[in-house]
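A quick aside before the break. I want you to see a complete sequence-to-structure record at least once, exactly as it would be stored in a machine-readable document. Don't worry about memorizing anything.
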Amino acid sequence: MKKMKVWSTVLATGVALTTLAACSGGSNSTTASSSEEKADKSQELVIYSNSVSNGRGDWLTAKAKEAGFNIKMVDIAGAQLADRVIAEKNNAVADMVFGIGAVDSNKIRDQKLLVQYKPKWLDKIDQSLSDKDNYYNPVIVQPLVLIGAPDAKEMPKDWTELASKYKGQYSIYGLTGGTGRAIYASILVRYLDEKGDLGVSEKGWEVAKEYFANAYTLQKGESTAVKVLDKENAIQYGMIWGSGALVGQKE
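That is the input. The structure line, written in C-alpha coordinates, reads:
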Protein backbone atom coordinates (compact mmCIF):
# COMPACT_ATOMS: atom_id res chain seq x y z
CA MET A 1 0.00 0.00 0.00
CA LYS A 2 1.21 3.50 -0.75
CA LYS A 3 2.42 5.43 2.23
CA MET A 4 -0.32 7.62 3.70
CA LYS A 5 0.03 10.82 5.69
CA VAL A 6 -1.02 10.49 9.31
CA TRP A 7 -1.74 12.48 12.47
CA SER A 8 -3.53 11.30 15.56
CA THR A 9 -5.40 11.78 18.81
CA VAL A 10 -5.49 9.04 21.45
CA LEU A 11 -8.03 6.80 23.16
CA ALA A 12 -7.23 4.70 26.21
CA THR A 13 -8.83 1.27 26.02
CA GLY A 14 -9.08 -0.91 29.05
CA VAL A 15 -10.34 -3.85 31.01
CA ALA A 16 -13.12 -4.06 33.60
CA LEU A 17 -14.76 -6.78 35.66
CA THR A 18 -18.53 -7.02 35.61
CA THR A 19 -20.51 -7.80 38.76
CA LEU A 20 -20.96 -11.37 37.50
CA ALA A 21 -17.22 -12.01 37.73
CA ALA A 22 -17.01 -11.06 41.39
CA CYS A 23 -20.30 -12.34 42.74
CA SER A 24 -21.77 -15.80 43.07
CA GLY A 25 -25.45 -16.52 42.55
CA GLY A 26 -25.91 -13.49 40.28
CA SER A 27 -25.72 -10.96 43.10
CA ASN A 28 -25.49 -7.31 42.05
CA SER A 29 -23.13 -6.40 44.88
CA THR A 30 -20.15 -4.29 43.81
CA THR A 31 -17.88 -5.05 46.75
CA ALA A 32 -14.29 -4.15 45.94
CA SER A 33 -12.08 -6.99 44.75
CA SER A 34 -8.35 -7.44 45.10
CA SER A 35 -5.75 -8.94 42.78
CA GLU A 36 -4.68 -11.08 45.75
CA GLU A 37 -7.90 -13.12 45.78
CA LYS A 38 -7.58 -16.69 44.51
CA ALA A 39 -9.15 -17.23 41.08
CA ASP A 40 -11.17 -20.34 40.31
CA LYS A 41 -9.46 -21.35 37.08
CA SER A 42 -11.83 -24.26 36.48
CA GLN A 43 -14.65 -21.95 35.38
CA GLU A 44 -14.99 -20.51 31.90
CA LEU A 45 -14.67 -16.72 31.82
CA VAL A 46 -16.81 -14.98 29.21
CA ILE A 47 -15.17 -11.79 27.93
CA TYR A 48 -17.04 -9.26 25.80
CA SER A 49 -14.59 -7.38 23.60
CA ASN A 50 -14.30 -5.20 20.51
CA SER A 51 -10.68 -6.37 20.12
CA VAL A 52 -11.16 -9.92 18.85
CA SER A 53 -10.68 -9.69 15.07
CA ASN A 54 -7.44 -10.11 13.12
CA GLY A 55 -6.17 -12.82 15.46
CA ARG A 56 -6.29 -10.71 18.62
CA GLY A 57 -8.91 -12.89 20.29
CA ASP A 58 -6.97 -16.05 19.47
CA TRP A 59 -3.80 -14.54 20.93
CA LEU A 60 -5.55 -13.55 24.16
CA THR A 61 -7.17 -16.97 24.45
CA ALA A 62 -3.80 -18.70 24.00
CA LYS A 63 -2.10 -16.45 26.58
CA ALA A 64 -4.91 -17.05 29.06
CA LYS A 65 -4.57 -20.80 28.56
CA GLU A 66 -0.83 -20.57 29.28
CA ALA A 67 -1.75 -18.94 32.60
CA GLY A 68 -4.25 -21.70 33.35
CA PHE A 69 -7.45 -19.81 32.50
CA ASN A 70 -10.28 -20.94 30.26
CA ILE A 71 -11.73 -17.89 28.50
CA LYS A 72 -14.31 -17.34 25.78
CA MET A 73 -13.91 -14.16 23.73
CA VAL A 74 -17.19 -12.76 22.39
CA ASP A 75 -16.72 -10.32 19.51
CA ILE A 76 -19.02 -7.28 19.84
CA ALA A 77 -18.69 -3.93 18.06
CA GLY A 78 -17.45 -1.19 20.37
CA ALA A 79 -20.55 0.98 20.05
CA GLN A 80 -22.81 -1.98 20.88
CA LEU A 81 -20.82 -3.52 23.71
CA ALA A 82 -21.87 -1.26 26.57
CA ASP A 83 -25.53 -1.41 25.53
CA ARG A 84 -25.33 -5.22 25.40
CA VAL A 85 -23.95 -5.44 28.95
CA ILE A 86 -26.62 -3.04 30.23
CA ALA A 87 -29.41 -4.91 28.42
CA GLU A 88 -28.28 -8.13 30.14
CA LYS A 89 -28.03 -6.57 33.60
CA ASN A 90 -30.75 -8.83 35.04
CA ASN A 91 -29.41 -11.94 33.32
CA ALA A 92 -25.69 -11.24 33.02
CA VAL A 93 -23.51 -13.29 30.68
CA ALA A 94 -20.16 -11.48 30.57
CA ASP A 95 -17.57 -11.86 33.33
CA MET A 96 -15.29 -9.19 31.91
CA VAL A 97 -15.25 -6.36 29.39
CA PHE A 98 -12.08 -5.71 27.40
CA GLY A 99 -11.16 -3.05 24.85
CA ILE A 100 -13.70 -0.23 25.16
CA GLY A 101 -12.81 3.34 26.07
CA ALA A 102 -13.66 5.51 29.04
CA VAL A 103 -16.95 6.85 27.65
CA ASP A 104 -18.53 3.40 27.36
CA SER A 105 -16.81 2.13 30.51
CA ASN A 106 -18.37 5.01 32.44
CA LYS A 107 -21.73 4.12 30.95
CA ILE A 108 -21.51 0.58 32.35
CA ARG A 109 -20.07 1.76 35.66
CA ASP A 110 -22.92 4.22 36.17
CA GLN A 111 -25.37 1.33 35.87
CA LYS A 112 -23.51 -0.28 38.81
CA LEU A 113 -22.47 -3.25 36.68
CA LEU A 114 -18.73 -3.12 37.41
CA VAL A 115 -16.73 -4.04 40.48
CA GLN A 116 -13.71 -2.23 41.86
CA TYR A 117 -10.46 -4.03 41.13
CA LYS A 118 -6.81 -3.10 41.64
CA PRO A 119 -4.58 -5.22 39.38
CA LYS A 120 -0.98 -5.98 40.30
CA TRP A 121 0.19 -3.95 37.31
CA LEU A 122 -1.59 -0.76 38.38
CA ASP A 123 1.70 1.01 39.16
CA LYS A 124 2.95 0.33 35.63
CA ILE A 125 0.28 2.34 33.81
CA ASP A 126 -0.74 5.99 33.59
CA GLN A 127 -3.27 6.07 36.41
CA SER A 128 -4.67 9.38 35.21
CA LEU A 129 -6.41 7.29 32.54
CA SER A 130 -7.91 4.88 35.09
CA ASP A 131 -11.23 5.29 36.82
CA LYS A 132 -10.52 7.12 40.08
CA ASP A 133 -12.28 4.35 42.03
CA ASN A 134 -10.66 1.54 40.01
CA TYR A 135 -13.78 0.34 38.27
CA TYR A 136 -11.70 0.07 35.09
CA ASN A 137 -8.05 0.46 34.10
CA PRO A 138 -6.39 1.01 30.71
CA VAL A 139 -4.18 -1.62 29.13
CA ILE A 140 -3.24 0.28 25.97
CA VAL A 141 -3.48 3.76 24.52
CA GLN A 142 -4.87 3.41 21.01
CA PRO A 143 -4.19 6.31 18.65
CA LEU A 144 -7.18 7.38 16.57
CA VAL A 145 -5.59 8.73 13.43
CA LEU A 146 -6.48 10.85 10.45
CA ILE A 147 -4.89 9.50 7.30
CA GLY A 148 -4.36 11.48 4.14
CA ALA A 149 -3.85 10.49 0.53
CA PRO A 150 -0.20 10.42 -0.61
CA ASP A 151 -0.87 13.36 -2.93
CA ALA A 152 -2.75 15.45 -0.35
CA LYS A 153 -1.25 18.94 -0.37
CA GLU A 154 -1.68 19.44 3.37
CA MET A 155 -2.96 17.70 6.49
CA PRO A 156 -5.70 19.25 8.65
CA LYS A 157 -4.42 20.22 12.08
CA ASP A 158 -7.57 19.27 13.98
CA TRP A 159 -10.75 17.20 13.57
CA THR A 160 -12.85 20.37 13.69
CA GLU A 161 -10.85 21.85 10.82
CA LEU A 162 -12.18 19.18 8.47
CA ALA A 163 -15.70 20.60 8.32
CA SER A 164 -14.71 24.21 7.74
CA LYS A 165 -11.91 23.69 5.21
CA TYR A 166 -12.34 20.25 3.64
CA LYS A 167 -16.05 19.86 2.88
CA GLY A 168 -16.70 16.68 0.91
CA GLN A 169 -13.06 15.61 1.11
CA TYR A 170 -13.11 13.46 4.25
CA SER A 171 -14.76 10.23 5.34
CA ILE A 172 -15.89 9.36 8.87
CA TYR A 173 -17.32 6.40 10.73
CA GLY A 174 -20.88 6.83 11.97
CA LEU A 175 -21.92 6.72 15.61
CA THR A 176 -22.61 2.97 15.44
CA GLY A 177 -18.87 2.34 15.81
CA GLY A 178 -16.49 2.97 18.69
CA THR A 179 -13.97 4.96 16.63
CA GLY A 180 -16.56 7.37 15.26
CA ARG A 181 -18.10 7.88 18.68
CA ALA A 182 -14.75 8.47 20.37
CA ILE A 183 -13.73 11.16 17.90
CA TYR A 184 -17.19 12.75 18.07
CA ALA A 185 -16.91 12.86 21.87
CA SER A 186 -13.44 14.42 21.61
CA ILE A 187 -15.02 17.29 19.67
CA LEU A 188 -17.99 17.83 21.98
CA VAL A 189 -15.89 17.77 25.15
CA ARG A 190 -14.26 21.04 24.07
CA TYR A 191 -17.60 22.82 24.34
CA LEU A 192 -18.89 21.77 27.75
CA ASP A 193 -21.55 24.04 29.21
CA GLU A 194 -23.68 23.14 32.22
CA LYS A 195 -26.54 25.19 30.80
CA GLY A 196 -26.32 23.64 27.34
CA ASP A 197 -28.26 20.72 25.89
CA LEU A 198 -26.77 17.53 27.39
CA GLY A 199 -24.06 19.69 28.94
CA VAL A 200 -22.73 20.95 25.59
CA SER A 201 -22.91 24.56 24.39
CA GLU A 202 -24.89 25.65 21.34
CA LYS A 203 -21.60 26.38 19.56
CA GLY A 204 -20.45 22.82 20.25
CA TRP A 205 -23.55 21.32 18.66
CA GLU A 206 -23.12 23.61 15.64
CA VAL A 207 -19.53 22.43 15.16
CA ALA A 208 -20.60 18.79 15.53
CA LYS A 209 -23.47 19.21 13.06
CA GLU A 210 -21.16 20.77 10.47
CA TYR A 211 -18.61 17.99 11.03
CA PHE A 212 -21.21 15.36 10.07
CA ALA A 213 -22.92 17.35 7.32
CA ASN A 214 -19.71 17.99 5.36
CA ALA A 215 -18.36 14.42 5.61
CA TYR A 216 -18.86 11.21 3.69
CA THR A 217 -20.03 8.57 6.18
CA LEU A 218 -18.51 5.17 5.44
CA GLN A 219 -21.02 2.41 4.79
CA LYS A 220 -20.75 -1.17 6.04
CA GLY A 221 -17.91 -2.96 4.27
CA GLU A 222 -16.18 0.20 3.09
CA SER A 223 -12.54 0.79 4.01
CA THR A 224 -11.06 4.10 5.13
CA ALA A 225 -7.74 3.37 3.44
CA VAL A 226 -9.27 2.19 0.17
CA LYS A 227 -11.47 5.27 0.03
CA VAL A 228 -8.52 7.60 0.62
CA LEU A 229 -6.32 5.90 -1.97
CA ASP A 230 -9.02 5.72 -4.65
CA LYS A 231 -8.21 8.51 -7.10
CA GLU A 232 -11.64 8.19 -8.68
CA ASN A 233 -13.36 9.98 -5.78
CA ALA A 234 -12.87 13.26 -3.92
CA ILE A 235 -12.05 11.73 -0.52
CA GLN A 236 -8.57 12.81 0.59
CA TYR A 237 -8.77 12.11 4.33
CA GLY A 238 -10.24 9.51 6.66
CA MET A 239 -10.27 8.32 10.26
CA ILE A 240 -9.00 4.98 11.52
CA TRP A 241 -7.58 3.43 14.71
CA GLY A 242 -3.79 3.25 14.99
CA SER A 243 -3.30 -0.50 14.64
CA GLY A 244 -5.61 -0.48 11.62
CA ALA A 245 -3.44 2.16 9.96
CA LEU A 246 -0.33 0.06 10.56
CA VAL A 247 -1.97 -3.01 9.04
CA GLY A 248 -3.03 -0.92 6.07
CA GLN A 249 0.50 0.37 5.53
CA LYS A 250 1.87 -3.19 5.49
CA GLU A 251 -0.73 -4.34 2.99
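Two observations worth writing down. The CA atoms of residues 8 and 158 lie 9 Å apart. The first strand starts at residue 5 and ends at 17. We'll return to this after the break.
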